Amino acid sequence: MEGKRQAKIARLLQKELSEIFRRQTAALGGVIVSVSAVRVSPDLSIAKAYLSIFPADKSAAILENIKKQSKTVRYELAQAVKQTLRKCPDLQFYLDDSLDYIENIDRLLGPRKENGEETTED
Q: Does 90 fall in a domain?
């Protein structure tokens, strides 16, 4: 169970990481990186950031680039939160595919179209 302090720090890290990625991706054009969730370990030493990347076909390449640049991202994050946190946690980045999963479920459960008409099974 996540404590109040962990949740507060996770929200702070999510907000600051979102701002960092917004600034970095503004130069790329046509790419959006959003931080969907941040999970912080109980000792506050590791933060797992879950990223949603649009367009999805570029997500693997962009995630690898972010992982390579994680030290730079951590430094920028440390500068942003230095008034709140004494030590910036190590960052681990993961691809958040929950939106793709939800879309797939909706597609599977949605009404089927036959000859241009929607049909539902009774």
A: yes
